[in-house]
Structures are given as structure tokens and as C-alpha cells.
Structure prediction request, 108 residues.
Amino acid sequence: MGTNQVVALITAPSREVGERIAQALVEGTLAACVNIVAPIRSVYTWEGKTCREEEVLLVAKTTLAVFQGPFVPAVKALHPYDVPEIIALPIVAGAGDYLQWIERATQA
Prediction:
């Protein structure tokens, strides 16, 4: 049973940047909720080098339509990275009332 809702993952360089992005997404009705998980340790390859950084992880609940529409450009406008992580994972099932709340709280 698939749903129209997704969980979007975004990494950010600091709690302050994460808070700014989270607030803009929720206040702009682009996400129903954004959890900020901090700190996380990221190990990744960038420009041929292995990097290790402390970051924060944003876990945003939104709809696929919003993610494919204004969500990604809104994050990029506030994000300092050249290529920020902004990915969506499908919610395959969930409590009906919670999924309905995501729909109501985000612009469709």
C-alpha cells in the first residue's frame, strides 16, 4: 500500500542552517514537520577527496507533489552547499490520521 507522502532527508553544516531551512519549510507549508537530528558524522567523497564532517540531518515529512514542485528549490535557496543532499524516500504505509495530517499541512 503506497502513499502520496514522502520523507525528505537533507544534511546541513550546522544547527543554525538546519533551523533556518526547517522553519522556512514548515512556515511555507512545504513540510508538515521537520525533525533536526544532531550531531551526525558524515563521511563522503567530494572533489576527489574523502571528507569527514559533523553535520545535522533534517527529516522532513511532505508530499511527493510538493517535493517535486517547490520543495527542492526552496531548500537550495537557503542552503550553503553547492550540491546539498535533498532526497525523498517513499512512505509505504503509515497511520492514516498522520498521513492525512501531512496532506493537510502541506500545499498540494
Helices lie at 15-27, 64-78, 96-105. The radius of gyration is 14 Å. The chain has a mean pLDDT of 96.
